[in-house]
Amino acid sequence: MGQREPSAPRCAALVGPYLSGKTTLLESLLFATGAVSRKGSMKEGNTVGDSAPEARARKMSVEVNAAATEYLGEKWMFLDCPGSIELTQEAQNALVVADVAVIVCEPEVSKALTLAPLFKFLDDRQIPHMLFINKMDTAAHRVRDVLAAALQSVSARKLVLRQVPIRKTEKSGAETVSGFVDLISERAYNAPGNDPI
After folding, report:
1. Is position 23 within any domain?
2. Are 48 and 27 contacting, i.e. CB atoms less than 8 angstroms apart?
3. Residue 149: its pLDDT value, please?
4. Of 44, 96, 137, 162, which sits most exposed with the smallest number of CB within 10 A?
């Protein structure tokens, strides 16, 4: 009595355009949750996802890849979906079985329109989704501006920021992301171990 019954894993589909960083995000999620001891690299061809010979030869996802992990006592299954337009049906098949979709995109205002069909597919089928704006270390615009100027125009639902990056200017003049501010808890975190500031 009192023991919790094991539940089926929650399923999250990582979707977005080609080269948005879905497989790299999967590697980071698996590493952060302890499912793998090191992060694989697309360049080195040693990622958990995209392990098929065709995917490695093309340097892109050609099928849905699945990976399991556990976080805060909950089991999770991640579906890393191909982003190439000719493989859209593969991603859509994964989305209809997922509990939630994570839309991975770049912080490029000019690329926002490519997400419109994806947002429509998710909205039409009432699939819960969140947005992960990747590659913020190379962003030319602030995340708020990307969200307001571009991404909101392709989403029928109101998009709300949850976290914003903290930028730091290096001695060389280059900007890097040194952490983030969680707008819900109103706390700032450093990038390395995500310890509270």
Report:
1. yes
2. yes
3. 81
4. 44
Tokens standing for residue 106: 């770049």
Q: Which amino acid is at 165?
A: P
3-state secondary structure of 39: coil
Q: Is residue 5 part of a domain?
A: no
What pLDDT is attached to residue 192? 59
Task: Return the closest-CA partner of residue 103 out of 9, 22, 165.
Answer: 22
Question: Is residue 138, in this structure, part of any structural domain at all?
Answer: yes
Same domain, 120 and 148: yes
Report yes or no on 3 lying in a domain: no
Q: Alpha-carbon distance 150 to 134, whole Å? A: 15
d(CA 117, CA 15): 12
Q: Which domain holds residue 184?
A: 163-197
**Alpha carbons 21 and 114: distance in angstroms, whole number:** 15
Task: Give the distance, in angstroms, between the CA of residue 113 and the centroid of all CA atoms in the same chain.
Answer: 18
pLDDT digits (tens, 9 = 90+) for 118-139: 999 999 999 999 999 998 888 8
The three-state secondary structure class of 3 is coil
- Note the pTM of the prediction, 2 decimals: 0.85
